[in-house]
Design brief:
alpha+beta; Structural Genomics Hypothetical 15.5 Kd Protein In mrcA-pckA Intergenic Region, Chain A; four-stranded antiparallel sheet; 5 helices
C-alpha cells in the first residue's frame, strides 16, 4: 500500500497528525501530550498548532512506549491502522527499545488485586508471600 496521496502536500497541525497516525485516541489527548512536553519535533518542543512536513523527525512518549520516527506522509484524516502506519517510519533503535520494554513488562509480577488500598485480602496476601519467597530464593 502507498501513503495517501490526496493529503500529501496540505499542511497539517501536529496534534491532528498524531491523532491521524493513531498515536493518541483523541486530538485533545494529543494536544495535552504536546503541551506536557511528551512530543519533540526536530529536537524542539513544539506547540500543537505547529505544522508537520514530510521528513520531520518526531520523538513521542505515550503512556506505554516511546517512539522515534520520521514523517513519510501527511494526513488529517484518521483512517484504518494499516493506512496510519504508512504515514511514518520508525527507527530501528526505537523498535528494538520498544521490544525490550515489552519483554520487561511481560516479566513483571502482576497481582490480581484490583484495589490496593486498605488491608490485603487473603488471596492477595498469599500472592505477596509467594512473591517475597521467590525474591529470597
Amino acid at each position: 500500500m502507498n501513503p495517501p496521496a490526496d493529503h500529501a502536500t496540505a499542511p497539517v497541525r501536529l496534534d491532528k497528525w498524531l491523532w491521524a497516525a493513531r498515536f493518541f485516541k483523541t486530538r485533545s489527548l494529543a494536544t495535552a501530550a504536546i503541551d506536557a512536553g511528551h512530543v519533540r519535533l526536530n529536537d524542539e518542543r513544539p506547540k500543537p498548532a505547529r505544522t508537520v512536513k514530510v521528513g520531520d523527525r518526531l520523538h513521542i512518549r505515550t503512556a506505554a512506549d516511546a517512539f522515534e520516527l520520521t514523517v513519510l506522509a501527511i494526513s488529517e484524516r484518521r483512517g484504518p491502522a494499516g493506512e496510519a502506519r504508512l504515514l511514518y517510519a520508525e527507527t530501528e533503535a526505537s523498535v528494538a527499545e520498544r521490544a525490550r520494554n515489552q519483554q520487561a513488562r511481560a516479566l513483571e509480577p502482576v497481582f490480581d488485586h484490583p484495589d490496593v488500598r486498605g488491608r490485603p485480602t487473603k488471596k492477595w496476601r498469599r500472592q505477596l508471600h509467594f512473591f517475597q519467597r521467590k525474591q529470597q530464593d
